[in-house]
Design a protein that fits this description.
With 107 residues, this protein is mainly β. The chain contains one helix and seven strands. The strands form two sheets. It has a four-stranded antiparallel sheet, with no helix packed on it.
Length: 107
C-alpha cells in the first residue's frame, strides 16, 4: 500500500476556531488580505450524511497574508483579530465582543 501525505505547500492560510456552541451556527468569518482581497466564509453545520462539522474554518490566502479577521455571530456579536500569524489558528471561543474591547481601550 501507498500513503500520500500532504506537506501543505507554501501557500499562506489561517484557521479560525469558533466556539463549539449553537451561537456559532450561521457565523460569518471575513478575512482581509494584504493584497486588498476580502474572503468571506459562512459557518454551516450538518453538511453530509451523519456528519458533524468542525468549528474550525480554514481560509487560504495564497501569496498574500491575512491582515485582519472579523467574526459576526448570528446574534449580532462581532469579534476581530488584527494581523493573525500566518499558518496559525485564531481562537474566537473565548474572545470578547469588539464593542467590549473598544470600550476597554478607550478608558
Amino acid at each position: 500500500p501507498k500513503a500520500f501525505i500532504s506537506e501543505g505547500g507554501e501557500a499562506n492560510y489561517v484557521r479560525v476556531k469558533l466556539k463549539n456552541t449553537v451561537s456559532s451556527i450561521g457565523a460569518i468569518v471575513t478575512a482581509k488580505l494584504s493584497d486588498g482581497r476580502q474572503i468571506i466564509r459562512p459557518f454551516i453545520v450538518g453538511e453530509g450524511l451523519c456528519s458533524d462539522s468542525t468549528h474550525v474554518i480554514t481560509i487560504g490566502a495564497g501569496e498574500a497574508t491575512v491582515s485582519s479577521l472579523h467574526v459576526r455571530l448570528i446574534d449580532g456579536t462581532t469579534m476581530e483579530a488584527m494581523a493573525p500569524a500566518n499558518k496559525s489558528t485564531s481562537s474566537f471561543s473565548d474572545a470578547e465582543p469588539v464593542e467590549a474591547t473598544a470600550k476597554a481601550v478607550a478608558q
